[in-house]
Amino acid sequence: MPNFSLKASETSPPAFNWEAWYSQIGGRKIKIEEVDQILKEIYEVQYKRFEGPVNPFKTLFDSPEAASNIIKVKAQEFGADIVGICKIEATDIYKGKQVTETHAIALGQRMLWRKFQVVPSQESAIECLRVYHTLGETVIQLAEFIRSLGYTCKVEHPIGDSDLLHIPIGLKAGFGELGRHGSIIHPKLGPLFRMGSVICSIEMSCDQPINAGIGKFCDICKACRIYCPAKAIPDHRSPEAGKDHIGLDRYVVDTGKCFPYFASHYYCSACLPVCVYNHKEWARDFEGFQTKLFPEVIFENPPEPTDGVAENLRHEYNRVHREPKVTSKNPE
Ligand code: SF4
Ligand code: SF4
User: Fold this and answer.
1) Cα(127) to centroid of ligand 2, in Å?
2) In the chain, where the domains are located
3) I need a surface site. Which of 194, 243, 295, 313 has the fewest CB within 10 A?
4) Ligand 2 contacts CB of residue 149 (under 6 A)
């Protein structure tokens, strides 16, 4: 029996209930053969590898710093572009869940800017899923490595169904700051990356949240808000939503407006490539491919906002600041 257990905090949000949200818009609408194939691979092959034998002989580390270094180097060998470590707190856990591990090793892998030159598009949708799969592989391999050292651990796959909220873990692990669009912006990679983690109870040294002035920059830049086809990104911060990790009031994306657009337009993603941060390394895509500096954003009439998802199944912040003419359609 584990001798440590941590439950979600009173304020933790429920995990995103995809089926409840999809049922509000008449079911899943994105049909792309490559995407379906990747999803099948994740659910039918990768999920089975979440568990495995633990070496009965434990490797001991000289210090928490040594443990942290060994694990970070391995994570990068397995394909992570960024790695950070933090302690798990109750607010990092989804409502109704609990964990028996003390630390999270957060891993990030970037998506290719050149695949987001037109958004929403089939190409950008496939790139999102491609990285869910490759980062999933990285996370699984790191978990296998940790078990080979004699420690139990748990995989928090980037695609979801996890116990932990990826964003607060990424912020605490020093990945970047929270942008107006609700995603983490890394000072070098920008927002165009995905996150997953492995959780375990190895005593490791932790990283710290960073303050690189990105959140402050969002206060004057509104590119993502201007280009969001569903008008889901806010003009102002919301003091009632609490502070982010560096003490700024949060920006609250209206998930009830984003979701129907996202779910019927190739996972949308427009707010990520239009973000001005460095993910395009001045239009050279980190790998030398010449690209456009800004993507072409396809604006289409957004579908009706989704307001019918039960309160206890909403991920968070749905309908904050909804205009009166739209809220009048609410069932309450
Ligand atoms: S994913 Fe699309 S609809 Fe959702 S917030 Fe970003 S730009 Fe707006
Ligand atoms: S586009 Fe501008 S406002 Fe939006 S998240 Fe990026 S930097 Fe912040």
Assistant:
1) 21
2) 6-13+26-200, 214-327
3) 243
4) no
